[in-house]
Design a protein that fits this description.
single chain, 292 residues, Rossmann fold, 5-stranded parallel β-sheet, 5 strands, DNA-binding transcription factor activity, RpiR-like, carbohydrate derivative binding, RpiR family transcriptional regulator, SIS_dom_sf
């Protein structure tokens, strides 16, 4: 069994309908296998967990966990976690909700990093990096994400504004010259009517627009080509902020790397000096020699 995937492709025609579904899922979703269980695959494919287990035994494995271990050891998959993480997961049962929550959060975060390889990501990074003025706004629970993006960018570059929606008219966005600036709107389901209306008005005004949203948003691509998406349908009661937080962190990192260089370092050093002057720290910084 030197190549499990080659075997699945070669024997596919001889499988039953249910077995073929499982085989096709494994072949077409290789990057997701590390985060799946027999129960989760059964739920996705509307088959029984018994059927998934029987299919694994037909392939020569005791259960789905052994199949995953075979793939991990044969390096067919991009297993991002080391043995310590696998051992940690083994402490949970397949039915444990915390295990599924953790695996789903990792799966969604991996997807963000995969999308960051696309041209739309690099184009969006370039737009924000070259804009002399960046205005950022978020509504409902996304206000926190907007604040995080704005505050982090303010550390590394000038001209970043967190837009306050309390005025109700957005004159600071819509009535000023669109040149040399861009607007970043963050929103996920259920989308705020205000965010969509503001996006539409900004597009009409010719303001370069970035929309950070989830993968199910169908109106954002009609308004701008600069759409960055992260899934938020985790396994928790509330929608997961992990993938969107990861997106914001990665976006800031790439904006800094887009020609920031020494300018960013100088700015951070000057900000640190100002902070130390106005606020200071509980303990002073350690010197190179190790003395406080």
């Amino acid at each position: 069994m030197s190549d499990l995937f080659a075997r699945l492709e070669a024997e596919n025609a001889s499988y039953t309908a249910a077995e073929r579904q499982i085989a096709l899922f494994l072949l077409n979703n290789r990057e997701m296998i590390p985060f799946e269980t027999a129960a989760s695959i059964a739920q996705r494919l509307d088959v029984s967990a018994v059927t998934v287990g029987r299919f694994c035994r037909m392939l020569g494995f005791k259960h789905f966990r052994e199949l995953k271990e075979h793939l991990r050891m044969s390096a067919h998959l991009p297993w991002l976690a080391g043995q310590a993480f696998q051992d940690f997961l083994s402490d949970f049962t397949d039915s444990d909700k915390r295990r599924r929550t953790l695996e789903r959060e990792i799966e969604l975060l991996v997807a963000v990093y995969e999308r960051s390889q696309h041209k739309v990501w690099s184009d969006t990074v370039a737009l924000i990096a070259r804009s002399k003025r960046v205005q950022i706004v978020g509504f409902q629970t996304e206000r926190g994400l907007a604040a995080m993006l704005a505050h982090n960018l303010q550390y590394v570059r000038p001209g970043v504004e967190l837009i306050d929606s309390a005025s109700g008219h957005f004159a600071d966005v819509l009535l000023e010259d669109p040149g040399d600036r861009c607007l970043v709107i963050i929103d996920v389901r259920r989308y705020s009517r205000t965010s969509r209306h503001l996006a539409e008005r900004a597009a009409e005004a010719g303001i370069p627009l970035v929309i950070i949203t989830d993968t199910l948003c169908d109106w954002a691509p009609r308004l701008t080509t600069h759409v960055l998406a992260a899934d938020s349908d985790g396994a928790l009661f509330w929608q997961s902020a992990v993938p969107m937080t990861g997106l914001v962190n990665l976006l800031v990192n790439d904006i800094v790397g887009h020609g920031g260089g020494r300018d960013v370092e100088d700015r951070l050093e000057r900000i640190s000096a100002l902070y130390d002057d106005f606020v200071g720290f509980v303990r002073p910084a350690r010197t190179r020699g190790g003395e406080a």
